[in-house]
Specification:
The complex is a heterodimer. By secondary structure, chain A is an alpha/beta fold. Chain A is built from 18 helices and eleven strands. In chain A, a hairpin with a 2-residue loop joins strand 10 and strand 11. The radius of gyration of chain A is 25 Å and the shape is elongated. In chain B, 37% of the residues lie in helices and 16% in strands. Chain B contains 21 helices and 16 strands. In chain B, the strands form five sheets. A five-stranded parallel sheet of chain B has the order 11-12-15-10-16. In chain B, helix 4 crosses helix 9, helix 7 runs parallel beside helix 17 and helix 19 packs parallel to helix 21. Classes of the chains: A alpha/beta, B alpha/beta. The interface between A and B is large, with 44 and 42 residues.
């Protein structure tokens, strides 16, 4: 049998996964130093149960995949690693592990077997075992990954939320990592759209609504662990309305080295990847590289040329990524018709619920401040410097700007709210 | 025979009058010293005996009892030597009582009879009950700072005896060399850019408001802090005297005479509780807060100070003094200071700027929790100080000089005086409606700020006081306008509230 791990998964598998091989894979997934490639080789070769048995027996050399995967250059390190793996294999109880997952309502699917998501199967080196919780239907329709830096500006987060909301309203599932910053914002927007849909339903069926599609969250920990802690509620909401995906078994903590693996799943589940804000390097750019490697479109939201949070995204656009000004740009990129306009009576939650402020209503001082903030979040002294106004003028004007929700002040830093950015550009809002 | 000689000791930073009573009678030669003398004070018996002998006089071979009254007060130090020696000579009949009438005596005696200087001369002289006092030469200049007493100084016991007996005139006091007051090298014009910080310093100086500067290292917070004392007016006479007493009691030289300019102290964050508020068992040493009385206390790296030390500042900040209790006595030390503090908002140096600061939320929250709410609340002015841009450093317009700003501060303080307070920060909350009424637009603005949570009820009064100071600096008349309130709000940034992190 061809145990080449780089081969794409079987797009239409006919074999069902047996409990024996499923549980063996789950057990292998808990063993440190046994990675995805090794597991896939075992699975496609002698089979996971045989590999697990051999490992528990200490018979590593008998399985070439294990031998290769557990080889280290340093003799002592290798001995330590192998001893640890053998001990872990011995103490693992595959049946109980599988039962635990099932009891918790988590589905376990295996590469090359029935039930494995086709989206993951279509690429080389599919993740050997994947854990799912929630509704799998979002993976059947169009999907878009919205990713970005954890250290996002307010405007970036607002844009991600609006994008998530509008794409969901158009029937596209939003895939993201549940991280702080852009990821969380995108999913909150998606969930808001679903909540608004529910509210609409309560009023009666609407003919112009697009079909629903839930959010998909891909995480680096076991499905039972909500990380970061601040996103515990988000974790729950995404599970309730959509799907959670992970490559790690229950109870496993999100160690740093698991994040690239999680990013690769995000890339594979998406029809396109949208980066909202990113530095030149970072997790988002890793996901971008993974997406480009498998031929998935990458789009980016442009930002001010001098804003550090937009340095990476601007680079992507320069290198040929399509710019995203709103959800329509994304829908066009993945070949979905933009939605028909919603009736005015149904209200979406979001920053554009109130009418936008025409730029000319700002006044000279207000305009100077808003333009000064277009560069990025600033302290009072910086606003004074950039705008050229006196401190008293800025203080007084700022009151009005904050009240009209054009500017937000947090902890002494001033940032443009989404509407403020719109005012700068001259009126184009979502 | 009996003699009663006035003198004094230092307790805390104040002097307490002491009467040295000497009783000489026939009997087995002995010398008993009572009145709770400490170790160095008890050694007076040997010094006095040697000094009297060295002066060529006879030490009485009689039964001598010396009482340092009041007897419940612990006597510390060697400053009573001279009074004891004089007492012995008077009680023995060598010096007639009329010769020492109305004179107090202070000083340490060397074994050769020379009169040595003692620390704390200003509070000591301030406390004696006589009209005139005899002090060592070196202490004469500082002793003269106390107006009340006529000061005579001598170099040795022999000289003193000669003057008392009328055999020789009182020696001339040594010439006083007071150096010219040094023009402070810290001028506000040296600060480049930083419009918000300069404004905050001016407001802090004019209104006596405590100021907190939040910013990364290298942003110039220390430089700014050192400019504040230059903007403050001279100390009034009462405060000046109190500050002089403190410095004298601490054993410091007073090269400029009375302390007239507001002092500034910057204790390091590793300073102990005792060095901050005062301590010591027998001798109470004034702490940094007292040494800065009437001036500025600068706490750099505020978050690094132990919470206990910061908590100890509560009484001085609220009452302007520190009460220290020991088993033998309680003492009150003056401690009215204006507080300036500086801190880093976060370890990465980006000060929590959204989109740039890479500190995880948990770390930021923990960092900020180090400062208690009540302490932070005391700062009427809280500003961010960021590193100046390169253009500002190299070519920026120099700002106004200290003298210019100090003049405005002086005017503003005059207006505060008309309200019956030293500065606006001292204005009681109940008087705000009278002295700082709000115009309707200001009223609305504050209402919005309270509603949105930007301002708390406690902060409301503080913002009003700052707005009043701003109005004073600008020469406004009438109720406070929204412009002043808006700036006051900006100067009290919520820089240390938790940064919103979620979407």
């Amino acid at each position: 049998m061809n145990d080449d791990p780089d081969r794409p998964g079987d797009p239409e598998p006919s074999l069902h996964a047996s409990d024996r091989e499923t549980s063996a894979l789950v057990a292998l997934a808990t063993i440190p130093d046994v990675g995805a490639a090794t597991m896939l080789r075992c699975h496609r070769g002698p089979g996971a149960p045989a590999a697990l048995e051999a490992l528990a027996a200490g018979n590593i050399e008998s399985i070439p995949a294990l031998d290769r995967g557990l080889r280290r250059r340093d003799r002592d390190a290798q001995a330590t690693v192998r001893a640890a793996a053998v001990a872990a294999a011995r103490s693992a109880d595959p049946d109980r592990l599988l039962a635990d997952h099932r009891r918790a309502g988590r589905r376990v699917v295996v590469a090359d077997r029935v039930g494995y998501p086709p989206r993951l199967a279509r690429f080389p080196s599919p993740p050997p075992v994947v854990f799912l919780a929630g509704d799998e239907r979002p993976l059947l329709g169009p999907t878009v990954a919205i990713i970005g830096t954890r250290n996002a500006t307010r405007a970036g987060r607002e844009f991600a939320a609006v994008l998530g909301r509008d794409l969901t309203a158009a029937g596209v599932s939003v895939v993201s990592g549940l991280a702080l910053g852009i990821d969380g914002a995108a999913h909150r927007g998606a969930l808001d759209a679903l909540d608004a849909d529910d509210a609409d339903d309560a009023d009666g069926p609407e003919a112009t609504r697009a079909p629903r599609s839930g959010p998909v969250g891909v995480i680096a920990s076991g499905l039972d662990i909500a990380y970061p802690r601040a996103h515990q509620d988000l974790h729950g909401r995404v599970l309730a309305r959509g799907l959670l995906v992970s490559e790690t078994p229950l109870g496993v903590r999100p160690l740093p080295w698991r994040f690239p693996a999680r990013n690769r799943i995000i890339a594979r589940l998406a029809d396109a990847v949208v980066v909202v804000e990113s530095r030149r390097t970072g997790g988002s750019m890793t996901t971008v590289a993974l997406a480009q490697a498998i031929g998935i479109d990458v789009l980016a939201v442009p930002g001010h040329p001098l804003a550090p949070a937009s340095a990476g995204t601007n680079d992507l656009i320069f290198d040929g990524g399509a710019p995203v000004r709103d959800a329509t740009d994304v829908l066009v990129a993945i070949g979905v018709d933009p939605p028909r306009p919603r009736p005015a009576a149904s209200e979406l939650v979001g920053p554009t619920r109130r009418p936008t402020v025409p730029a000319d209503l700002l006044g000279d001082a207000g305009r100077a401040i808003v333009e000064a903030l277009a560069l990025g979040p600033a302290s009072l002294a910086e606003v004074i410097g950039r705008s050229g106004l006196e401190m008293d003028e800025v203080a007084v004007e700022m009151v009005g700007l904050v009240e009209r929700e054009l500017v937000v002040e947090t902890a002494g830093w001033f940032e443009l709210a989404g509407r403020g950015l719109a005012a700068v550009r001259g009126g184009r809002t979502s | 025979m009996f003699a009663s000689i006035p003198s004094s000791i230092v307790l805390g930073v104040d002097g307490r009058p002491v009467t040295v009573e000497v009783h000489v009678t026939a009997g087995v030669p002995s010398l008993t010293l009572v009145g709770l003398p400490d170790a160095s004070c008890r050694e007076a018996r040997d010094r006095v005996r040697a000094a009297i002998t060295a002066a060529g006089l006879t030490f009485p071979l009689k039964r001598i009892t010396i009482n340092l009254a009041p007897s419940l007060l612990r006597k510390a130090g060697s400053g009573l030597d001279l009074a004891i020696a004089v007492g012995v000579l008077v009680a023995d009949g060598f010096i007639p009582p009329e010769a020492v009438d109305g004179l107090a005596f202070l000083g340490e005696l060397g074994l050769d009879g020379t009169l040595r200087p003692i620390p704390g001369i200003v509070p000591l002289v301030d406390a004696v009950v006589s009209d005139a006092v005899v002090v060592p030469h070196v202490n004469a200049a500082d002793a003269a700072l106390v107006d009340r007493c006529k000061v005579r100084s001598v170099g040795s016991l022999l000289e003193l005896v000669g003057a008392l007996l009328g055999d020789a005139p009182w020696p001339d006091p040594p010439p006083v060399h007071r150096p010219l007051p040094v023009v402070s090298a810290h001028d506000l014009a040296d600060v480049r850019g930083q419009p918000v910080a300069r404004r905050a310093l001016e407001v802090a100086a004019a209104g006596g408001h405590h100021l907190l500067m939040v910013g990364p290292p290298g942003s110039g917070k220390t430089m700014l802090a050192t400019r504040l004392p230059g903007l403050l007016p001279d100390l009034d006479p009462v405060t000046s005297m109190a500050a002089t007493r403190v410095h004298s009691a601490a054993g410091e030289d007073l090269p400029g005479g009375l302390v007239r300019r507001p002092p500034m102290l910057a204790p390091h964050h590793t300073a102990s509780m005792a060095s901050m508020v005062g301590g010591g068992t027998d001798v109470l040493r004034p702490g940094a807060v007292s040494m800065a009385h009437g001036g500025v206390l600068f706490l750099d790296e505020l978050a690094e100070f132990p919470p206990t030390v910061l908590d100890a500042l509560r009484q001085p900040l609220e009452e302007g003094r520190i009460r220290v209790h020991r088993s033998q006595f309680h003492v009150e030390l003056p401690a009215r200071v204006q507080l300036i503090a500086a801190m880093n908002p976060c370890p990465c140096g980006e000060a929590g700027r959204p989109g740039r600061c890479s500190c995880p939320q948990g770390l930021l929250a923990r960092y900020r929790r180090r400062l208690s709410g009540p302490l932070l609340d005391r700062f009427d002015l809280r500003i961010e100080v960021l590193r100046p841009e390169v253009e500002e450093l190299l070519g920026g317009t120099g700002g106004e000089a200290t003298s210019v700003v100090a003049a405005r501060v002086h005017e503003a303080r005059q207006r505060a005086a008309e309200r019956g307070v030293r500065c606006n920060a001292d204005l009681a909350g109940t008087l705000l409606d009278r002295w700082a009424p709000l115009a309707p637009d200001a009223h609305d603005l504050l209402g919005t700020a309270l509603r949105t949570g930007r301002l708390s009820g406690r902060g409301l009064d503080r913002v009003r006081r700052v707005a009043l100071t701003l109005a004073d600096l600008a020469g406004d008349e009438g109720p406070l306008r929204s412009g002043r309130v808006a700036v006051a709000l900006q100067l009290r940034s919520d820089a240390l509230s938790s940064i919103g992190g979620g979407a």
